[in-house]
Amino acid sequence: MTKAEYEVVILGAGPAGLQAAIHVARAKVSVLVLGREYKSSIARAHVENYCCLASVTGEELLKEGRIQAEKSGADFLTEDVIETSPEERWFAIRLESGRELKTRSLVLAMGVSRNRLGLPNEKELLGRGVSYCVDCDAGFYRGERVAVVGGESAAVSGAMTLLFYADEVHLVSEQVMVTETLASQVRQSAITLHEGRRVKEILGQNQVEGLMLDDGSRLDVAGVFIELGAKGAIELASALGVALDSETMKFIVTDKKQATNAPGVYAAGDICGPPWQVAKAVGEGCVAGLEAAKWAKKFR
Ligand SMILES: Cc1cc2nc3c(=O)[nH]c(=O)nc-3n(C[C@H](O)[C@H](O)[C@H](O)COP(=O)(O)OP(=O)(O)OC[C@H]3O[C@@H](n4cnc5c(N)ncnc54)[C@H](O)[C@@H]3O)c2cc1C
């Protein structure tokens, strides 16, 4: 049974998040890990370059890491975070199930999202109907017809947000993979769900005019939001006032203690930029966990 308040909450159940959790829990600080192990980049890989384990699968690493973190005292919830906000002396977190939590300190370990559909027109029409960020671009589509592509928390919560702006919202998902609460909210909403469908083509020359789906049906929309995976680093981090690197605006900037510019917020792993390696993620997770625990103890 998880609680409504934790001293530290870790976003991400990959190597960075798990290592951070082990260190926070062993410092006798209450800690919750959010996210899905099977969504970690390493989940389906075979690892041969990680010190002391000459050959191990990503699945084995993640399984052992979770057991170790749980034994140390960490709690886990297999849910994505869809909103974070700073409050006086606390951070508020909203989960995909609608549940709300509070914490003194956050460790951001959400990895990198690889969220391109890889369709021919996708790059050319970026900013001309193609978007990767509902929170950033929803306002441009007031009174329009739009589609969201994806089946996880980012797409589903994004489609719900777009209902406040657009006239018509379509959700194209091969499979809806969110908590039952969020899935039933979508089914009861005005969103038109195209489940089991894939986008075959983005239509339009200079501007998005529609989508062609794999069953041959056409959706006439002015905007398509590609939201594969979970709510991404950029949206969640910017809501906390966390600075991203000035060159790519994709990675979180930290100091040597894995501290971001936002007091009480730490980051570790792929989310902090390359090299994308388990060893780096684990090292940064260790430092972030120790520092987050130290920060949270100040409030006792
Ligand atoms: C095919 C492949 C092979 C690889 N092989 C190797 C290798 O051999 N050796 C090596 O060292 N590295 C390898 N890597 C790189 C390695 O997988 C990553 O460096 C490592 O997994 C990074 O760990 P992380 O914890 O930062 O992120 P990840 O492991 O990607 O974990 C991210 C976590 O964040 C969670 N998450 C995301 N968004 C949210 C949200 N909104 N709310 C809550 N949780 C969220 C996810 O559910 C997931 O649990 C490989 C990567 C790939 C893709």
The CATH architecture name of the largest domain reads 3-Layer(bba) Sandwich
Shape: globular
Low-confidence stretches: none
N/C terminus separation:
23 Å
Main sheet characteristics: 7 strands, mixed
Radius of gyration over all CA atoms, rounded: 20 Å
Assigned CATH class of the largest domain:
Alpha Beta
The ordered string of helix (H) and strand (E) elements is EHEEEHEEEEEHEHEHEEEEEHEH
Primary descriptors:
FAD/NAD(P)-binding domain; five-stranded parallel β-sheet; seven-stranded mixed β-sheet; alpha/beta; 300 residues; 17 strands; binds flavin-adenine dinucleotide; globular; 2 domains
Describe, in plain words, how this protein is organized in 3D.
With 300 residues, this protein is of the alpha/beta class. It folds into 2 domains: 5-113 and 232-297, FAD/NAD(P)-binding domain; 130-226, FAD/NAD(P)-binding domain (3-Layer(bba) Sandwich), CATH 3.50.50.60. Helix content is 25%, strand content 25%. It is built from 7 helices and 17 strands. Strands 1, 2, 5, 6, 7, 8 and 17 form a 7-stranded mixed sheet that branches. Strand 1, helix 1 (15-26) and strand 2 form a beta-alpha-beta unit. The longest helix has 20 residues, at 278-297. It starts with a strand and ends with a helix. Bound molecules: flavin-adenine dinucleotide.
